[in-house]
Amino acid sequence: AIDAERLLPRLMHNGLPSAEAFKNVVEAPVAELGGRYGQVRAFGELVQLLWREGKSTAALHLEDLWNELLGYAPLSLICGYRVRTIGGHEGPRVDEIVRRHRTSPPRD
């Protein structure tokens, strides 16, 4: 288990999640665990933490990084945010985060 509140600062660079840091801190362990166990399930609360802080642009960027990872990693992502909670910040963007959120790889 990885504590999301401790992990989040390691991902951030100039107010946004860094793709390079995400690769090192999230993607590498997912790949290692996937190689060992075949399938990884992650409870992703990082997006929720950013949204709760009012950092919706960073939250959307992080959602995109997770979606990219879902495209090629042996990963199922369990949503870690509540729509009721994210609705308190920049309301119209709630639709955007829900639209972007995936829990499994895209299908062809």
Molecular structure report:
This protein is an alpha+beta fold. Helix content is 57%, strand content 13%. It contains 6 helices and 4 strands, in the order H-E-E-H-E-H-H-E-H-H. The protein has helices spanning 4-11, 19-37, 46-52, 56-70, 83-86, 92-100; strands at residues 12-13, 16-17, 40-44, 75-79. The strands form 2 sheets. It has a two-stranded antiparallel ribbon. The longest helix is centred in the first third of the chain and has 19 residues, at 19-37. The mean pLDDT is 82.
Cα separation of the termini: 32 Å
Radius of gyration: 13 Å
What average pLDDT do the residues reach? Answer: 82
Strand order of the largest sheet: 1-2
Strand fraction equals 5-15%
**Structure summary, number of beta strands:** 4
* Form type: globular
Q: Helical content, roughly?
A: 55-70%
Low-confidence stretches: none
Order of helices and strands: HEEHEHHEHH
Helix-and-strand structural type: alpha+beta
Counting DSSP H or I runs of 4 or more residues, the number of helices is 6
Largest sheet: 2 strands, antiparallel
